[in-house]
Amino acid sequence: MSQSIPKTTKTWRVKGQNGFDSLSYDTQATLPELGANDVLVSFATKYQYSGSSTSIGKTNQFFFRGLYPFALVDEVIPGSDGAGEVIAVGSKVTRFAPGAKVLTLFNQGHIGGSLDQLTAKTGLGGVLDGTLRQHGIFNENGLVNMPTSLSYLEAATLPCAALTAWNALYGLKPLKPGDVVLTQGTGGVSIFAVQFAKAAGATVIATTSSDEKASALKKLGVDHVINYKTTPEWGAHARSSPPPPSA
């Protein structure tokens, strides 16, 4: 069966380092030819990022503001995370077929083992064009299957935030039931860390800046919440065993 491959796509690009004002929208960006080992992924349906999803994290804000410590290509397509649908595959692709739901890998060249200087230079949205576009072409080894239990919106945050949290909990010294985990704030990495830690049977202490966020953390199962604005000495507060009741 023939595959329908678009010739152009819609993209965002980073032009300059003036925050979000540096973003430029292109409605007629040329889509490269599909290579033998490549996969064409759709990150959007019609004209909205509604069917498939991308996400913007802290790293992307560093791109826009000129604070990213690694190489950054001029006019790169930003976005390191994305969940989408495969719409075409190259002749030698074996891992995916049209219709598959996939996630992008943050470092496209990092297949396994420790990250090194070479693979660190293959990050999406910095050196390689990222996910803030309607369609993207990736080597099949730069994609993984998306969990079927998650929506596109939920899965789009997995490649960077979730893996960062997972690596912190299991990368050097694997988390065990009964361990105590301290998370700071309510960003994506911390929220994933809370959920992973609770699922593993750990006690979780979390810091935040408001009662509203504290309520959200408690709904996720956090055992002790510390408001660092009303409790400046939150470190000592967290080290006490068990921590005093939340303020």
From TrEMBL:
SMART domains according to UniProt: PKS_ER
Lineage top rank: taxon: Eukaryota
One GO molecular-function entry: oxidoreductase activity
Enoyl reductase (ER) domain segment(s): 19-243
Transmembrane segments: none
Protein name as it appears in the record: Enoyl reductase (ER) domain-containing protein
